[in-house]
TrEMBL record, chain A:
Source organism per UniProt: Phytohabitans houttuyneae
Protein name as it appears in the record: Pyruvate synthase subunit beta
Any Pfam family matching the protein: TPP_enzyme_C
Domain Thiamine pyrophosphate enzyme TPP-binding: 74-237
InterPro entries, alphabetized: PorB-like (IPR051479), THDP-binding (IPR029061), TPP_enzyme_TPP-bd (IPR011766)
The keyword Oxidoreductase is annotated on this UniProt entry: yes
Top-rank taxon, per record: Bacteria
Keyword list, A-Z: Oxidoreductase, Pyruvate
Keyword Oxidoreductase: yes
GO molecular function: magnesium ion binding; oxidoreductase activity; thiamine pyrophosphate binding
Region named Disordered: 342-367
From TrEMBL, chain B:
GO biological process: response to oxidative stress
Domain Pyruvate:ferredoxin oxidoreductase core: 259-357
Gene: porA
Organism domain of life: Bacteria
UniProt similarity note: Belongs to the pyruvate:ferredoxin/flavodoxin oxidoreductase family.
InterPro entries: PFOR_II, Pyruvate:ferred/Flavod_OxRd, Pyrv_Fd/Flavodoxin_OxRdtase_N, THDP-binding, Transketo_C/PFOR_II
Domain Pyruvate flavodoxin/ferredoxin oxidoreductase pyrimidine binding: 16-226
Coiled coil: none
Protein name: 2-ketoisovalerate ferredoxin oxidoreductase subunit alpha
GO MF annotations in UniProt: magnesium ion binding; oxidoreductase activity
Gene3D superfamilies attached to this UniProt entry: 3.40.50.920, 3.40.50.970
Organism from which the protein derives: Phytohabitans houttuyneae
Keyword set, alphabetical order: Oxidoreductase
Length: 367, 392
């Protein structure tokens, strides 16, 4: 079932489950859901990745009538869910390595095809490290061949399982254990950035989407939409990590929502390289509101407020808002195809950090 | 029926008759012809049903094979040299997960310096990754070992590497009896996976195992490899009766019975060695040759029996371990009771240098007269060494 109406969760602009007809409620509200990732696993309290995986898999189970095989990259999700001799998975689940999950998923898809088991679908999953960095070649290969796999990246913006190191998805200025908050440019570099969703779109695959665990209806409907399509599909889900981000365990969902409302994490859908829908920001916040609850950005406020860096991050958020047209009613720049999203329009002024801070190259990342 | 055919093609045709369902391909010389041939067989519909997956790297090739095998499909790929090393992480994984993937390794040297010619450095570098390693002496063996390889892999849920010398075998046209479909079907039943990813009976494959059980997992892997040694002779017997031709699966001794000197080697150099030994025998020198078809697991009992009381062992190594010397020699020294026996390591044929009968004769004559050094590089070009010394 593909759902086009956007819903807002309790805490933002509430349309709760209770107001909806039963079939339109989230999978998680259904006591008879598949419960693909059972409780009792060893994720940290308030782990966004555990939440995300649970929503994604249960939605995928619903969408496929339970005919699903899952492949998992190395990372928190794998480690916290399968300490021998226990397993938290109630789906057929295979872990091979850190960098090969998309290729393993391709192998599963090939085997199902040749064995005439077209009724069974494949879902690959990994963290941002496994997806955006080490497994990126395999992911691109899977996209380019058009293998019938939905690959889901749980983006917690770092290598959390090995102790919170920087990944290609770590945002500028964030402190990680390999981008410490010391020196003249504390935290992660302000670089070109690496947007896996935009690169995925460049493969012109049938479906690319971003989502967060702050909007479950949206997340679930995207999984269902993706499962209704064939070929290579990609879903990039922002999943805050209380441990790595230094946010309160009880604030995980709020932090994810602030990432969206600030414009730092644009939520959109794309088909064959074109953006087809965006989740508009209803209640825009300054990036500061998003940064403050996270220890990984504390050095931007203490001992002195780093207005330059915060402004730089705000510029990135503003740019996302313009690019993707995230504020309803405002004219937005070309969002129809991935080319436009990555380039300057003629005559358009780049308000990103590149023009302000000496020594910084290139436009700021999209997310 | 014997007919002249290129080694790569003989292997591709044979593999096709083993009915793989997923074939992954990434090009590297001298393996390329094998997957090219298979791709044509799949495209033309002669090998069906089969998914031919063109991947972006060897790491992906092995990973696709892992996914396919775990999902109940018979999976095959081929590689060599840098490609095998690029797969290394996935190789250990396939073995650890007990997935019966069969792979051809068209043996080739490893860079740097880059060199595409044959030696055994690639497969030897992966000798401890948990795969069964079989080495073909000629193209008939290369073809046959694949048929046996699939059967063994699937019976014992373990991956099998069939090693054939790059160019020397892969690109050589020899008379080969490519096993026909009906006979292969009689010998090789359909793949019955030990465990398979299936929504009807979900399993977790590839869980994380901590210190409390990891040793036990490894112990069981070792025990499984030892089962291979028990099972292989019986499979060879079945193969011989089904295909009406013999096959050496553990070791192939040649004139070893009364030999006081045994030369141990793997792969295509065995032909030259046997020829040389015939000559030496004619001159009254009691020399024998022991070919190792199986290198992993190490066929200890078969080696001990074949070597018998020989008092001199010369190991002809087609790869070497820098800083130590022989790779096969080290394994042999560990399992042959020392006593009076002399052991020599001769490194030969690296990076495609021909191993000639003359060199072998000279080397063996030196061994007989006690002039052979414990570690010798056959045909070492002293002039080149000196020239390099001057340059550096
Ligand atoms: C080849 C290889 N290099 C490094 C590692 C170590 N490693 C395991 S998990 C991991 C980080 C995982 O990060 P990510 O994919 O972002 O997932 P997360 O744990 O954050 O969910 C690393 C570096 C590995 N397993 N394999
Ligand atoms: S470190 Fe982060 S991603 Fe990993 S289990 Fe803990 S909260 Fe989840």
């Amino acid at each position: 079932m593909s759902q086009h109406v956007r819903f807002y969760q309790t805490g933002s602009f509430a349309v709760g489950n209770r107001l909806l007809p039963i079939q339109a409620r989230t999978v998680q509200s259904d006591p008879t859901r598949s419960n693909s990732l059972t409780s009792g696993h060893r994720a940290c309290r308030g782990c966004g990745e555990a939440l995300g995986a649970r929503y994604v898999l249960d939605a995928a189970m619903r969408a496929t009538g339970g005919r699903l095989v899952t492949v998992n990259a190395t990372g928190c999700l794998e480690v916290f869910s399968t300490p021998y001799p226990e397993t938290s998975w109630r789906v057929p689940w295979l872990h091979s390595l850190f960098g090969n999950a998309p290729a393993v998923a391709s192998g599963v898809a090939a085997a199902l095809k040749v064995r005439d088991r077209g009724d069974i679908r494949v879902l690959g999953q990994g963290g941002d490290g496994g997806t955006v960095d080490i497994g990126f070649g395999a992911l691109s290969g899977m996209f380019e061949r058009g293998d019938d796999v939905l690959f889901v990246c749980y983006d917690n913006q770092g290598y959390m399982n090995t102790g919170v190191q920087r990944s290609g998805a770590t945002p500028p200025a964030a402190r990680t254990s390999t981008t410490q908050a010391v020196g003249s440019a504390p935290g992660n570099v302000f670089g070109q950035g690496k947007s896996a969703p935009l690169i995925a779109m460049a493969h012109e695959i049938p479906y690319v989407a971003t989502a967060t665990i702050a909007d479950l209806h949206d997340l679930e409907s995207k999984v269902e939409r993706a499962m209704g399509l064939h070929g290579a599909r990609y879903l990039h889900v922002l999943v805050p990590c209380p441990l790595g981000w230094g946010s309160e365990a009880a604030q995980t969902i709020r932090v994810a929502r602030l990432a969206v409302q600030s414009g730092l994490f644009p939520v959109f859908e794309a088909e064959r390289g074109n953006v087809t829908a965006v989740s508009p920001i209803r209640h825009r916040v300054h990036v500061e509101e998003y940064l403050r609850p996270q220890i990984r950005f504390r050095h931007l406020f203490e001992p002195t407020r780093r207005a330059d860096v915060i402004d730089g991050l705000q510029a990135i958020a503003d740019r996302n808002i313009r690019r993707f047209g995230l504020l309803p009613g405002r004219r937005h720049e070309a969002t129809v195809c991935y080319h436009a999203a990555g380039r300057q329009q003629p005559g358009q002024q780049d308000r990103g950090l590149a023009n302000r801070t000496p020594g910084v190259r290139g436009p700021a990342p999209a997310m | 029926m014997l007919s002249p055919i290129e080694g790569s093609r003989a292997v591709a045709e044979t593999v096709a008759r083993c009915r793989p369902q997923v074939v992954c391909a990434y090009p590297i010389s001298p393996q390329t012809h094998i997957v090219e041939n298979l791709s044509a067989l799949v495209k033309s519909g002669r090998l069906a049903p089969c998914e031919f997956v063109n991947v972006e790297s060897e790491f992906a090739a092995m990973s696709v094979a892992i996914g396919a095998s775990a999902t109940g499909a018979r999976a095959y790929t081929a590689t060599a040299s840098q490609g095998l090393l690029y797969m290394a992480e996935a190789l250990y994984n396939a073995a650890g997960l007990g997935l019966p993937i069969v792979m051809t390794v068209a043996n080739r040297a490893i860079g740097a310096p880059i060199n595409i010619w044959n030696d055994h450095s690639d497969a030897m570098s992966q000798r401890d990754c948990g795969w069964i390693q079989l080495y073909a002496e000629d193209n008939q063996a290369a073809a046959d070992l694949h048929v046996i390889g699939f059967r063994l892999a699937e019976e014992l849920s373990t991956p099998v590497m069939v090693c054939m010398d790059g160019f020397v075998l892969t690109h050589a046209v020899e008379a080969v009896d490519v096993p026909d479909q009906t006979t292969v079907d009689r010998f090789l039943p359909a793949y019955q996976p030990r465990q398979v990813l299936d929504p009807d009976a979900p399993v977790t494959i590839g869980a994380m195992v901590g210190p409390e059980a990891f040793t036990e997992v490894r112990y069981l892997a070792h025990a499984n490899q030892l089962r291979v040694l028990d099972r292989m002779p019986e499979l060879a017997h079945q193969f011989a009766t089904t295909f009406d031709r013999d096959i050496d699966v553990l070791v192939s001794p040649y004139r070893c019975d009364d030999a006081d000197t045994v030369v141990v080697a793997l792969g295509s150099v065995l032909g030259t060695l046997k020829d040389t030994v015939d000559g030496l025998r004619a001159d009254g020198m009691p020399v024998g040759v022991l070919g190792l078809t199986m290198f992993r697991p190490f066929p200890v009992a078969a080696i001990r029996t074949a070597v018998g009381p020989a008092k001199r062992i010369v190991v002809l190594e087609r790869a070497f371990a820098a800083g130590v010397g022989g790779i096969v020699s080290a394994d042999l020294a560990g399992v042959l009771p020392a006593g009076e026996r002399e052991m020599y390591t001769v490194v030969a044929g690296l990076g495609g240098r021909p191993v000639t009968r003359d060199s072998l004769r000279e080397m063996l004559a030196a061994a007989f007269s006690g002039r052979l050094a414990p570690l010798t590089f056959l045909d070492l070009d002293e002039r080149l060494l000196r020239a390099e010394e001057v340059r550096s």
